[in-house]
UniProtKB/TrEMBL annotation:
Example of a GO biological process term: cellular response to calcium ion
Gene3D superfamilies associated with the record: C2 domain (2.60.40.150)
Organism: Pelodiscus sinensis
GO cellular component: plasma membrane
Protein name, UniProt field: Copine 5
Record domain C2: where: 1-74, 81-206
Gene: CPNE5
Pfam families per record: C2, Copine
GO molecular function: calcium-dependent phospholipid binding; metal ion binding
UniProt record similarity statement: Belongs to the copine family.
UniProt-listed InterPro entries: C2_dom, C2_domain_sf, C2B_Copine, Copine, Copine_C, vWFA_dom_sf
Length: 401
């Protein structure tokens, strides 16, 4: 049991408020069960209450359904309609912004006896407990008192943990080439996300101060200045953002029917037709397919074979439909693919060579027809070994990318 909702009194159409936070893993099948009870007493023991029905689904099914909202009939009481359960999921809104910034400095203190300084910056963020963990260092710019550092990107979370006014401390050092001593401290300044977000302006020119020097010298102004050259923020979208936006995942499978797999009638073959359990190919297909099918609304999956001789004339094909229909190689659900796979094992002759390029190009043709970005194509190639057309396969992958 993962959790319980609150009890809502006297209604047949309850709208439960309590949310349940689950870790979501795209690549795992996360089975869920929802049981509904009519509560008549304060007892926590479920057997003391009336069972109203249950529903089963996967977390992927909820996330993958339109608007991440799934309706399921409640079942579990023979001969009785138990109503409907509506499940919805949303991703916890964590800050996904990434900030990119660039700094330069002017008239930094000269630290090296012979040349100029070799300056670099070190950034620290302040924590609630008063500590300052380091979160970034720039590269070293050699032999200059007026360095321009390269731009760098950092998640806004790492910068300030969502608190825009939190202090960010920056220290300026002169890199020490012999490494025996620590790098020479030139000075420091503080800022915050809110200040940096103003971008290049008079507010973002900082005096670099060395506190020790300041205490010693009355006329000390600073050890140079650091200027923010640019600051931009972009959002990084997650996989779930795309799914919520209506992206459909199209799943195609291609199975290796070359002779190196061994004779399907023998138990040593990867294609062994065992009446009692799935062979290696079927297991791999099911493992990947059952995850992906939750994100495809029509559950129609093209299934191809390659490297076999086909009836009636025994010509070798590297992209034949497992269901025997060249116009529409799509099978209904993972079970449909497994049926077509077992059927074709009985009719084709394992042969060779092991060519990948035809199936890669096959899926590429379908993907190229969808220009609006609403379709994402996944090709699962299940194979036992060495690729015969490596040059063409590389070429195909480069062109599809």
């Amino acid at each position: 049991q993962f959790g319980r909702t609150e009890v809502i009194d006297n209604t047949l159409n309850p709208d439960f408020v309590r949310k349940f936070i689950l870790d979501y893993f795209f690549e795992e099948k996360q089975n869920l069960r929802f049981d509904l009870y009519d509560v008549d007493s304060k007892s926590p023991d479920l057997s003391k209450h009336d069972f109203l029905g249950q529903a089963f689904c996967t977390l992927g099914e909820i996330v993958g359904s339109s608007g991440s909202r799934l309706e399921k009939p409640l079942t579990g009481i023979p001969g009785k309609k138990c109503g409907t359960i509506i499940l919805s999921a949303e991703e916890l809104g964590n800050c996904r912004d990434v900030a990119t910034m660039q700094f330069c400095a002017n008239k930094l203190d000269k630290k090296d006896f012979f040349g100029k300084s070799d300056p670099f910056l070190v950034f620290y963020r302040s924590n609630e407990d008063g500590t300052f963990p380091i979160y970034n260092k720039t590269e070293v710019v050699k032999n200059t008192l007026n360095p321009v550092w390269q731009a760098f990107s950092i998640p806004v979370r790492a910068l300030c943990n969502g608190d825009y006014d939190r202090t960010i401390k920056v220290e300026v050092y002169d890199w020490d080439r012999d490494g025996r001593h620590s790098h020479d401290f030139i000075g420091e300044f503080t800022t915050s996300y809110r200040e940096l977000a103003r971008g290049q302006s008079q507010f973002n020119i900082y005096e670099v101060v060395n506190p020790k020097k300041k205490m010693k010298k009355k006329k000390y102004l600073n050890s140079g200045t650091v200027t923010l050259l640019s600051f931009t923020v972009e959002s990084e979208y997650t996989f779930l953002d795309y799914i919520k936006g209506g992206t459909q995942i199209n799943f195609t499978v291609a199975i290796d029917f070359t002779a190196s797999n061994g004779n399907p009638s023998q138990s040593t073959s990867l294609h062994y037709m065992n009446p009692y359990q799935l062979n290696a190919y079927a297991m791999a297909l099911k493992a990947v397919g059952e995850i992906i099918q939750d994100y495809d609304s029509d559950k129609m999956f093209p299934a191809l074979g390659f490297g076999a001789k086909l009836p009636p004339d025994g010509h070798v094909s590297h992209e034949f439909p497992l269901n025997g229909d060249p116009d529409n190689p799509a099978c209904s659900g993972i079970e449909g693919i497994l049926d077509a796979y077992h059927q074709s094992l009985k009719t084709v002759q394992l042969y060779g060579p092991t060519n990948f390029a035809p199936v890669v190009n096959h899926v590429a043709r379908y993907a190229a027809a969808e220009q609006d970005g609403s379709q994402y194509f996944v090709l699962l190639i299940i194979t036992d070994g060495v690729i015969s057309d490596m040059a063409q396969t590389k070429e195909a992958i480069v062109s599809v990318s």
